[in-house]
Amino acid sequence: MFITLDLESEEPIYTQLKNQIIAGIAKKELSPGEALPSVRALAADLGINLHTVNKAYQQLKQEGFILIHRQKGVVINPDGVPKADAVYWTELSAKIRPLIAESVCKGVSEAEFQELCHQIFAEFYQ
Amino acid sequence: MFITLDLESEEPIYTQLKNQIIAGIAKKELSPGEALPSVRALAADLGINLHTVNKAYQQLKQEGFILIHRQKGVVINPDGVPKADAVYWTELSAKIRPLIAESVCKGVSEAEFQELCHQIFAEFYQ
DNA sequence: TAATTGTTATACTATTAATATAACAGATAA
DNA sequence: TTATCTGTTATATTAATAGTATAACAATTA
C-alpha cells in the first residue's frame, strides 16, 4: 500500500490520504483487520504533521472504514465497510449530478460517460 | 430559471450558483445567447454580495459557459459550451474515481452505479 | 446628464488547512 | 519500575479561502 501526496494540489492533504486508503480497500490491497500505521509513524513517513493524519483517520473511523483502539492502534474495519444506505445514495447523487450536468453541456453522451465509469470500476476489479 | 441557495451548506455560495447555471444550460432552461442578470441585480435578488456573484460569473466565463461584455452584460455563450477535450476527460476521471472507490467499498455494484447515473442523465433530457 | 454595466481596489470577519509543541492516560516491553 | 508507544486533547500560529462592505473607475445607454 503506497501513498503518494501532492503537496501542491488544491485538494487538502487529509482528503488525499482518506481517498487513497479508501481506494486501497476497494482494490483489496487493504484487507479487513489489517493494521494501519500509527498516526505518528505515518506522519513521519509522509513528512506531514501528526494532526493531518489524525484528521484523515478520524473521518475514516466516523464513516466506518477503520476502527481505532486507544492503545492497540488502527485497523481496517474487520466487519467490512458499512453497506450503502438511503443517506449514502442521496449524497452520492448530489456529488455526481453537477458532474453529469457539466458533461451534458460539453457534449458528452450518456454512453461515453458510462464507458468512463466502467473503465474506472475495472481499476478496482483487477 | 430559479436559483435557490442554501446559506447553511458547506458548499460555497458561488459554487452553488455556478452549478445551478450549468444545470440550467444542461436542461436547456438557459439557451445560447440568452441574457443573465447583472452581477448587482442577481446579488440583490439572491440577497448576497456583488462579489460572490462576480466570482461565479468569472469562473463560468473562464470555462466557456458564458460571455461577459463590459457594458452589455452577461449572456450564455452563443456558440455553445466548448466540447469535452482530453484535459476535461482527465479531470472528470479524477473527480469520479474517489466516488466509485467509496461505492465499491460500500457494496454498490457497477450496475447499480450505472443505473443512478442513468437516472441523473434523464433529469437533463426531459 | 444620469443611470447602468463590468471591473478593480481595499478592508474586515470567519473558517479551514496545516503545522508546531506539549501534555495526558493506558498498555506494553525491557 | 521505567521507558516507550498508543490515541487523544489542548493551545498557538501561519496561510488561504469565503463572504461581506464600501468605494471608485470607465464605457455605454437612456
Automatic annotation (TrEMBL), chains A, B:
UniProt KW keywords: DNA-binding, Transcription, Transcription regulation
Top-level taxon of origin: Bacteria
InterPro entries linked to this entry: Tscrpt_reg_HTH_GntR, WH-like_DNA-bd_sf, WH_DNA-bd_sf
SMART domains: HTH_GNTR (SM00345)
Domain HTH gntR-type span(s) in chain numbering: 11-79
Any Pfam family matching the protein: GntR
SUPFAM superfamilies: Winged helix' DNA-binding domain
Protein name in the entry: GntR family transcriptional regulator
Organism the protein comes from: Neobacillus paridis
